[in-house]
Write a structure and sequence with these properties.
Order of helices and strands: HHEHHHEHEHEEE
Helix content: 25-40%
CATH class of the domain at 27-72 and 146-216: Alpha Beta
CATH architecture of the domain at 27-72 and 146-216: 3-Layer(aba) Sandwich
Largest sheet: 4 strands, antiparallel
Strand content: 15-25%
Radius of gyration: 21 Å
Structural class: alpha+beta
Number of strands: 6
CATH topology of the domain at 27-72 and 146-216: NADH Oxidase
Number of helices: 7
Shape: globular
Strand order of the largest sheet: 1-2-4-3
Bound molecules: flavin mononucleotide
Distance between the termini: 7 Å
Length: 251
């Protein structure tokens, strides 16, 4: 798309080819931040970010969420340690990319069975990440000084996980717009295998914890942009029986 970056357009207006407005700029420039300074964001700023989440839309306005902010260094360190422990345990049985040949064959069998049962959890991307974590090559929570846990209330109308996603993304964009960095962390769910953490955060029916946001001031070194696929979009803008025209979004 032919958009100029030098200046920003005012909010609430549109003209073809005009520069991004501040909201669009934040959306397109946001990146997952995985490298944080030690000091946390001020509480007033965290509350402002939470407010962006509170204002998110949800099906039937059911607002199926509860927010937990973790800033205690002691708790954060314990969460990291336990998450690594659980991931190492799973990878001991499942990681068919490491170890000798016999180990790999057995692990491949276990992984094949589990991928059938939990196809999303063991998709190659989380699998690769878990393998790296088990080998001590990367942390789970990226040493972030703040975690915002997005606790889902399963009694929400229609599709509560979708509402959680919308709510969290409001927070991520707000954080970015205020100069902070954030990264979604789906791997927090491994802590839910440990009763200690379920108890600590009050995660029992109707609540579920599948995701959190790691947040803080980003270190100057940030990850580079991640490529996006171009999307073929179908436009039905003629008659009932006319085929759609297609455009390629992102080229
Ligand atoms: C629901 C969800 C869970 C994620 N979980 C993790 C995670 O556990 N660890 C991590 O480093 N990144 C995680 N990410 C970040 C993605 O890897 C990242 O958004 C994606 O690679 C695109 O990069 P970008 O956010 O920089 O545009 C998650 C993202 C989402 C939306």
């Amino acid at each position: 798309m032919n958009v100029k970056y030098e200046e920003l357009s005012p909010l609430g207006t549109y003209e073809e080819g005009m520069p991004w407005n501040p909201v669009e700029k934040i959306i397109v420039e946001r990146r997952s931040i995985r490298s944080f300074k030690k000091e946390p964001l001020p509480d007033s700023m965290i509350r402002r970010i939470l407010e962006a989440g509170r204002f998110a839309p949800s099906a039937g306005n059911s607002q199926p969420w509860r927010f937990i902010v973790v800033k205690s260094r002691e708790i954060l360190a314990e969460m990291e340690k336990d998450a690594i422990r659980v991931i190492k345990f799973f990878m001991f049985f499942l990681d068919y990319t490491t170890g000798n040949r016999v180990r790999r064959i057995i692990a491949r069998f276990y992984a094949a069975v589990l991928i059938r049962i939990l196809p999303n959890e063991l998709h190659p991307v989380p699998f690769g990440l878990m393998s790296q974590i088990a080998q001590g090559k990367t942390p789970v929570f990226h040493a972030a000084p703040i975690l915002i846990l997005l606790v889902e209330d399963r009694r929400g109308v229609s599709n509560p996980p979708m509402d959680i996603g919308i709510c969290g993304q409001n927070m991520v964009l707000a954080a970015h717009s205020l100069g902070a960095g954030a990264c979604w962390i789906g791997l927090i769910k491994v802590l839910m295998y440990l009763p200690k953490w379920r108890k600590k955060f009050g995660i029992k029916y109707p609540y579920k914890l599948d995701v959190c946001l790691a947040m803080g001031w980003q270190k100057p070194k940030a990850d580079g942009p991640v490529p996006r696929e171009a999307q073929v979009v179908e436009w039905y803008d003629k008659g009932l029986n006319d085929p759609p025209r297609t455009t390629k979004q992102g080229e």
